[in-house]
Amino acid sequence: MKKLLKQVIPVLLAFALLAYALRGMPLASLLDQFQKASRGWIAVTALVMGIQTILRAVRWRMLLQGLGHTPSAGRALSAMLAGSASSVIIPGSGELLRCTLLQRSDNVPITESVGSIITERLVDLLATAVFLSLTLLLESGRLLTYVQQYMQLPDWFSAMSGGHWAGLAAGLLVCITLTIIGLRSVFRWQSVQRLAQRIRLRERVDGFRRGLMSIRSVERPSLYWLTTFCIHGLSLVVLASLFRALPITENLPDSAALTVFALTSLGSLTIPTQANIGSYHFLASRGLVAYGMSLVAGTVWATFSHAIITLVNFGFSALGFLAALRFLRGGEKTKTYKVSKTL
C-alpha cells in the first residue's frame, strides 16, 4: 500500500499543480504560439539535449571505470536512456532497470552501480547549488521581486545584499559538504559493519559503499567536474533556445534562462511530481513574470518548453530502450556461443 501511494501521490500532485498553473489560460493563445514556433530553434534544442545526454553517459562511465568496470559508452548510454523510459511509465523504476541492464551486459554489480548513481545525484545537487548561488548574485533583484509577489517578506530579508546572498550560498555549500562527509563516516561505523555481518549483507553494503565513493577513484577528476559543468551549462542553452523559439519570448535576456533553471531545479528537488509536470509549469511561468511578461504568456512558454523537452527526452529514451534490448540479445548470443564452444 505504501509503495502504491509513493507512485500515485507524485502523479496526482503533478496534475493538480498543472491544472492550477493552466487555469484561465486561453487554449487558442497556446495553439497559436505552438504554430508560430521556430522549427530551427527546436532542432537546436534537440541537438543540445542529445549532446547533454551523451555527456551524462560519459560521466557515469567515468565513475564505473573508477570502480574497475569497463562498459562501453554506448551501453552506458542505452542503459541510462532505457531507465529514463521506464521512469516515465513506473515512477522510481528507472534506476533499478538502468543498473540491471548494465549488470546483464557488462556484469557490473547492482550495488556498485546504484551507489554510483547516488553519487551522481549528490554531484548534481552540488552543481545546482552553485548555479542557484550564481542566480542569487546576478538576479537577486528580480528574484526578490518575484518572491514578494506571493508573500510578505520581513524587512531584514528585503535588505539583504548580493554579499549576504553569497554568504548564505557559501553556508549552503558547507552544509552539503558536511552532509557528504557524514555519509562517508556512516559507512565506517563498526556497528554498521557488525550488522552487515550478522544479516549476511556485508558484500552488498561494501559494494554500495564502493559505488557511493566512486568519485574518489575517477581517473581524471578535472575532466569529470568539467563534464558536470558542461551538462548543467547546456541546460541553460536549452532554455535560451526555447526562448528564441517562440515570438513572445524571443527578446528575453539570456539571464532569464538562469532564473528559470534555478527555480525549476529547486522545484524538482522540493516538489516530487512525475516528470516535473505541474511544478515546472508553475515555477517557470511565474519566474518569467519578473522579466515583465504576463502570467498567461509565461504559462504558454512553460507549457511549450516542457512539451518539447519531454518529447525529445521520450524520443531519446525510446531509442535507448531499443538499443539496450539489442545489446542484451547480443550478450546472450555471445554467452550461448561460448558455452557451446566449451562443450
From TrEMBL:
Pfam families: LPG_synthase_TM (PF03706). The keyword Cell inner membrane does not apply. Keywords: Cell membrane, Membrane, Transmembrane, Transmembrane helix. It is found in: Cell membrane. This is Flippase-like domain-containing protein. The chain crosses the membrane at residues 40-58, 125-145, 165-187, 223-243, 255-271, 283-302, 308-328. One of its GO terms (cellular component) is plasma membrane. Its main location: membrane. It comes from Fibrella rubiginis.
